[in-house]
Specification:
Helix content: 40-55%
Largest sheet: none
Order of helices and strands: HHHHHH
Number of strands: 0
Radius of gyration: 17 Å
Number of helices: 6
Length: 103
């Protein structure tokens, strides 16, 4: 039984470290549990939708927070405010999706 608990603790640590390597670290640091974004069934986690993201990150606040990034194009304002996960892949390395259209 002790070996099982040790292995479980190790797996939880590895998962946290992996999350911290990418964008999910801010959520982990603030105590946001996986189920908040991915649903209750961690055997079949759901990919978060905009509705899930916008519950904690209102679009108006994001627009205001990022308005200084580019005076002519705010990535959180029309027409660039598509699905959150297109740019914010929390468990993967960041990708500059802007470069796909803006060279």
């Amino acid at each position: 039984m002790r070996k099982v608990l040790t292995l479980l603790a190790l797996l939880c640590t590895v998962t946290t470290v992996q999350a911290a390597d990418f964008g999910a670290d801010k959520h982990v640091q603030k105590g946001v549990q996986c189920v908040i974004c991915h649903g209750a069934d961690m055997n079949k986690p759901k990919e978060p939708t905009d509705k899930v993201c916008l519950q904690c990150h209102p679009r108006e606040q994001l627009i205001e927070k990022t308005k200084h990034l580019n005076k002519s194009v705010n990535p959180h304002n029309l027409p660039h405010n598509g699905e959150c996960i297109l740019c914010h892949r929390m468990h993967e390395a960041p990708v500059n999706n802007c470069a796909e259209c803006h060279k």
